[in-house]
Amino acid sequence: MWQFYRRLQPFSVISFDLDDTLYNNKPIMTHAEQHIAEYIGQRVPAVSHMNAADWRQLREQVAGRNRELASDMTALREAAVIDGLRQFGTEPTQALVDDIMEEFLNVRNQVTIDEHVHQLLARLATQYALVAVSNGNADIQRIGLGQYFQAAWRPGQGLRGKPFTDMFAAVHDRFSLQRPSQILHIGDHPVSDVEGALGFGAQVVWYSPTDAAADTKQTTRLPTARIEDLQALADLLR
């Protein structure tokens, strides 16, 4: 099912959010966060009492102090690790932090992609330039989607995460587009995806499998269209 809020304009680039758009990220992160809490405890016994919920609470505190970190999940997790170790008397070396982050990334990139997603991306890649625009740290090569995308952006190296428009501007420049509306963004988050894309002037299809009335309360702006499943996107873009 899909619902249009405004007429879809011509576009040549489709940008996809990754987490919770092309796959269900929640069980992946639950497993990864439990694993990394145990791993940190093994590496640094002084924090072995901290579980996944404790680290999550610490990340929320760090994010509350820095809005830009809140939209850069990799930098946020690294900052929370450093903060947590310092709170319990350990001054972390960069080598230790890098090891912890690499362990986390190895586990969080263990993603299984449904076959219908592969089929959708394969078809769209023959018609449009596909790119990934994500605040998270999923790697399109590691998760098995690299063959469909021409480029991928995530926060870092001067680029802020959504809803800041930096990454959409990078897409615009990469393809030398004449208008921001030539980008069609697909994503699940009412603020980072919907408001972020619209703030740049791109079009956006909001992937929202839950109740639309409840979801629209989370954003002040309506998307170009809303879909409840990715099959609807396939139908919409035929």
From TrEMBL:
One of its GO terms (biological process) is riboflavin biosynthetic process. Its cofactor is Mg(2+). Keywords: Hydrolase, Magnesium. SUPFAM superfamilies: HAD-like (SSF56784). It comes from the Bacteria. Gene3D superfamilies: 1.20.120.1600, HAD superfamily/HAD-like. InterPro entries: HAD-like_hydrolase, HAD-like_sf, HAD-SF_hydro_IA, HAD_sf. GO terms for molecular function: hydrolase activity. The keyword Magnesium applies. It holds the Pfam family Hydrolase. NCBIfam families: HAD-SF-IA-v1 (TIGR01549). PANTHER family: 5-AMINO-6-(5-PHOSPHO-D-RIBITYLAMINO)URACIL PHOSPHATASE YIGB, N-ACYLNEURAMINATE-9-PHOSPHATASE. This is Phosphoesterase. The lineage of its organism: Bacteria, Pseudomonadati, Pseudomonadota, Gammaproteobacteria, Alteromonadales.
